Amino acid sequence: DAGVIQSPRHEVTEMGQEVTLRCKPISGHNSLFWYRQTMMRGLELLIYFNNNVPIDDSGMPEDRFSAKMPNASFSTLKIQPSEPRDSAVYFCASSFGQYSNQPQHFGDGTRLSIL
Amino acid sequence: AQKVTQAQTEISVVEKEDVTLDCVYETRDTTYYLFWYKQPPSGELVFLIRRNSFDEQNEISGRYSWNFQKSTSSFNFTITASQVVDSAVYFCALSEEGAGNNRKLIWGLGTSLAVNP
Predict the structure, then answer these.
(1) What does the pLDDT read at residue B102?
(2) Which residues of B touch A (CB under 8 A)?
(3) Which tens digits make up the pLDDT trace of A77-100?
(4) How close is the nearest chain B Cα to the Cα of A63, in Å?
């Protein structure tokens, strides 16, 4: 079975450019999570969706960040305009069901470098 | 407030040694779930185990074992006869049933394990 699929795996761009990260959750999973990981701050939850609806976006750093989930099989995280401090590994994860006992399954991440 | 503490930032052992990674949690909820994840040098995050707060039985999976003790709010992870392939960052995480629709995981900062040949 396919796991969580993220694209691109690596992205290098100049500051000020728009960046779009993509995620395809595991089929049948109805919760989707976006995380950012840096050496300084560790693993941070940015936003999560349940049944395509954003439930908690308190981790989104600022208005430059936005996330959408137009359907059950696709989500995007967009940064516009990007800044060097956005450089990090961004993970997407998905889980099944409506209860908090379900493990999250992660994609391989997108390594983002903003020059 | 809920919190997960992994006091060991880095551990270094020699192959075949046993090693225990500590995880201490704080929660006010009576029903909660604990998780361990592994992040090898390749970077992906791999789910290892989930434990329910009402099941205190220890669990063993090959060389891996987990010791859950509610009395000390700990969920420790032991690797027996460690191997170089066990080198990774290991994360402990907590979720609470009482959080309702909010299924946020509370993460520890991770323990970096280096197993040297």
Answers:
(1) 63
(2) 32-33, 35, 37, 43-47, 50, 52, 91, 95-97, 99, 101-105, 107, 109-110
(3) 999 999 999 999 999 999 987 667
(4) 21
